[in-house]
């Protein structure tokens, strides 16, 4: 739909930026922090680990000062479960609590709203060794962890995100270092436990913090059929249910999506559901949906007799399931230097699909472009591609708002350069450059990129700055 005039962004729109604890903090074994699964994850050869990253733990005040200079209205970060409760359950680490207290206070000093992800890919290793999300007792562990967070930070944190990208952990856990499953049945049992843990946290949050808001944070993307053939359209429906709605139907409506359930049945992978489980899912009501969007997906029908296919670069990533869907490239899109398709219109479509389906306010908790970058001869970083990427996506978000979608915040990835899930420090996402290489830590100097000043201007004016690029 073409609009002659776009609605302005709401006055109190949360212009934000995102990070996650294990990708940004470093200090992996300092001040009583227990190890997490990410601390023992072996990255692909030639890729750095998460032990230091951009050392935000030791640069926190300086980083927050820069976030304030950029004009951020909010900052989305995650709390490392094993920094707060080193073994995942039991003893609380006061120094961990103290760090997040300082971070939250520092943000509030500059009127930056903290948005907290409670769990972002870094399960305490002790729990993982016991079976992690496969064990039902983890629901109680997560609930107790949630209680510790609400007790300690609930007086200042109003926005809570339960679990980052649960769907990516279930679908691509090998790639992002979270997989511990022994098969499809086990992975969907883990998924069921995560859904229950999330539901318990939402219920507890509403009991303990009546003024706070809480919601899930999956990765959602719209799925195109490769052609207008009915079979391709059906494959797109299949994949949409398995990739998107399975997670949100459970989080919002407290039900298992029927198509996804049929897929699980077909694969003998339905989770064991105990009496009362579905009541817990139903009783939990999110206040909003947070979602991460990087790109769309395109799929074709997949012959039931065909073989299951994995990604040519990553054998752990399934890209085709016989009889269900087959991922294909979409020739209509340009790609990032890391091969991710760029689809801003798909972002608008995704926003609309989510709002149409669930009628809940939305916040975008990740969106961004990974680039190879270095300091230019003038000591700066001219990241015009990133500005173009954001401009195009924010423009489409404004169109979605004009379409009637309720969006209350945008938190791109990432506030500052950090370590990517599996492609190291060379894949930079930040508004702020950090002067280190893949393995050489150099001086860790912070240098605002051109996009930093562009975003600053956007936030000040609450609108996309005028530029000469062709929209
Ligand atoms: C999301 C994760 C983030 C982040 C981002 C970019 O899936 O929530 O943790 O890293 O993707 O992905 P990558 O780091 O693989 O480029």
Question: What descriptive keywords fit this protein?
Answer:
single chain, 471 residues, alpha/beta, TIM Barrel, four-stranded parallel beta sheet
Report on the structure:
The chain is α/β, with parallel strands linked by helices. The protein has a single domain, classed as Glycosidases (TIM Barrel, Alpha-Beta Barrel), CATH 3.20.20.80. It has 14 helices and 15 strands. It has helices spanning 21-24, 56-70, 81-84, 94-109, 125-129, 138-153, 166-172, 184-208, 230-253, 258-266, 277-283, 344-358, 384-403, 450-461; strands spanning 14-15, 74-78, 113-117, 159-164, 213-217, 223-225, 289-292, 297-300, 309-310, 318-321, 325-327, 362-366, 407-410, 432-434, 446-448. The protein has a 5-stranded mixed beta sheet with strand order 6-8-11-10-9, with helices on one face. The chain has a 4-stranded parallel beta sheet with strand order 1-13-12-7, covered by helices on one side. A 4-stranded parallel beta sheet has the order 2-3-4-5. A hairpin with a 3-residue loop joins strand 10 (318-321) and strand 11. Helix 6 (138-153) runs parallel beside helix 8 (184-208), helix 9 (230-253) crosses helix 10 (258-266) and helix 12 (344-358) packs parallel to helix 13. The longest helix is centred in the middle third of the chain and has 25 residues, at 184-208. The protein is globular. The mean pLDDT is 95. Residues 20, 23, 164-165, 168, 219, 292, 366, 370, 413, 420-423, 427 line the site of 6-O-phosphono-beta-D-galactopyranose. It holds the Pfam family Glyco_hydro_1. This is Glycoside hydrolase family 1 protein.
């Amino acid at each position: 739909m073409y609009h002659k005039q776009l609605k302005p962004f709401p006055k109190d729109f949360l212009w934000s930026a995102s990070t996650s604890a294990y990708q940004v903090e470093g200090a992996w074994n300092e001040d009583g922090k227990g190890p997490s699964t990410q601390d023992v994850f072996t990255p692909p050869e030639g890729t750095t680990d998460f032990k230091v990253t951009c050392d935000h733990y030791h640069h926190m005040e300086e980083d927050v000062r820069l976030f304030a200079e950029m004009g951020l209205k909010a900052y989305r970060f995650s709390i490392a479960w094993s920094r707060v409760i080193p073994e995942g359950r039991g003893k609380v680490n006061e120094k961990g609590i103290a760090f997040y207290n300082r971070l939250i206070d520092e943000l509030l000093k500059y009127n930056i709203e903290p948005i907290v992800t409670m769990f972002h890919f870094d399960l305490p290793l002790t729990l993982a060794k016991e079976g992690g999300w496969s064990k039902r007792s983890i629901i109680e562990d997560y609930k107790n962890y949630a209680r510790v967070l609400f007790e300690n930070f609930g007086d200042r944190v109003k926005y809570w995100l339960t679990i980052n990208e649960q769907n990516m952990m279930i679908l691509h856990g090998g790639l992002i270092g979270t997989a511990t499953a022994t098969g499809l049945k086990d992975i969907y049992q883990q998924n069921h436990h995560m859904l229950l843990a999330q539901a318990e946290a939402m219920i507890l949050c509403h009991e303990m913090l009546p003024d706070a808001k809480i919601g899930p944070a999956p990765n959602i993307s719209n799925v195109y059929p490769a052609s207008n053939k009915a079979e391709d359209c059906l494959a797109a429906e299949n994949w949409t249910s398995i990739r998107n709605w399975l997670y949100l139907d459970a989080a919002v409506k407290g039900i298992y999506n029927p198509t996804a359930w049929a897929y699980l049945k077909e694969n003998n992978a339905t989770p064991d559901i105990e009496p009362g489980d579905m009541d817990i899912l139903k009783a939990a009501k999110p206040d909003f949906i947070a979602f991460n969007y990087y790109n769309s997906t395109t799929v074709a029908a997949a012959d039931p007799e065909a073989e299951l296919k994995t990604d040519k670069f990553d054998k752990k990533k399934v890209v085709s399931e016989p009889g269900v869907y087959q991922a294909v490239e979409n020739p209509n899109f340009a790609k990032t230097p890391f091969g991710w398709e760029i689809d801003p219109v798909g972002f608008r479509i995704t926003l609309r699909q989510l709002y149409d389906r669930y009628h809940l306010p939305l916040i975008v908790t990740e969106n961004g472009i990974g680039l190879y970058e270095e300091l230019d001869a003038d000591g700066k970083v001219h990241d015009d591609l990133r500005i173009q990427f954001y401009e195009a996506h924010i423009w489409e978000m404004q169109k979605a708002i004009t379409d009637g979608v309720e969006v209350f915040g945008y938190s791109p990835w990432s506030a500052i350069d950090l370590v990517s899930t599996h492609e190291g420090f060379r894949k930079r996402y930040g508004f702020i450059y950090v002067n280190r290489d893949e393995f050489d830590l150099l001086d860790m100097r912070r240098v605002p990129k051109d996009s930093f000043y562009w975003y600053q201007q956007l936030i000040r004016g609450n609108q996309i700055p005028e530029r000469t690029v062709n929209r």
